[in-house]
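We emphasize that the prediction below concerns an isolated chain of 290 residues; any contacts that depend on oligomerization or on bound cofactors are therefore not represented. The input was used exactly as deposited, without trimming of termini.
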Amino acid sequence: MRQVSDMDFVGEKIQLAQVKLTDVTEWNDGKLLPHEDMLAAEEPLEIRIGDVPLTVTMRTPGHDRELAAGFLLTEGLIEDASQIMQLRSYVTTTGGKENGVEAELRDCEFDPAQMQRNFFAASSCGICGKASIEAVRLRGLRAPMGGFRFDPEMLCSLPEKLREAQTVFSHTGGLHAAALFDAAGNLLVLREDIGRHNAVDKVIGWALLQGLAPLAAYGLLVSGRGGFEIVQKALAAGLPLVASVSAPSSLAVQLARELGMTLVGFLRGRRFVMYAGAERCEATSAATTG
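Result of the prediction step, given as a token string:
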């Protein structure tokens, strides 16, 4: 397996660290064909506060400081960008690469041991829905502010825009994407990652560092399903709308309904399903079936 060279993507908006080449053998209609294939890169990223290790996440390299900033906000360690004094990339022992981000924070108190236990629990399969919702309540997440409304025609136009902007996915087929959009349907930023939650953190981190948070005037579009962790992170950023091309989970729907977020699933073609917050949809006409 080898890193892609600078000449492989002349003129394309892609970070070379995000893809790797490998030799494969393809079976196609009775024939075996050896060739090179492109893979989405996956490497560990360590995030620490000062010299205290906080967490390690498997991610696609690129936009690591945005990922760290978004993680700090969506996991409740900070409330706004003013608490971030500095984000610094550093070289870890894993292959001698810059696979670490160190955050220097102000006005931030946390128990490293407790936070590490929380992150482990949140990533496990055994945590129950009741405990998850209670943890969100204890964090003090609130309903999104503002009067955000969206046109259903605008929403239906977004998946195609997302696909067109997924540069790395078009070469590898192995990445999730998240994008921030405004009420007019303009994509402000798109990020891709091997982990859907990482893609969301990168988008939110970008917005945080750009001074846009809280994101009461924007929506979030994700390429996969709308799971609990996506809704939780979006609420932490103040987003009033999360839309996905696949289905949400039951816990995601419960959380969205409880905290007043609009949650859209199965956004495909000229159809979508609103599981929560349908009042934000500015449908020009209503049809009923009898």
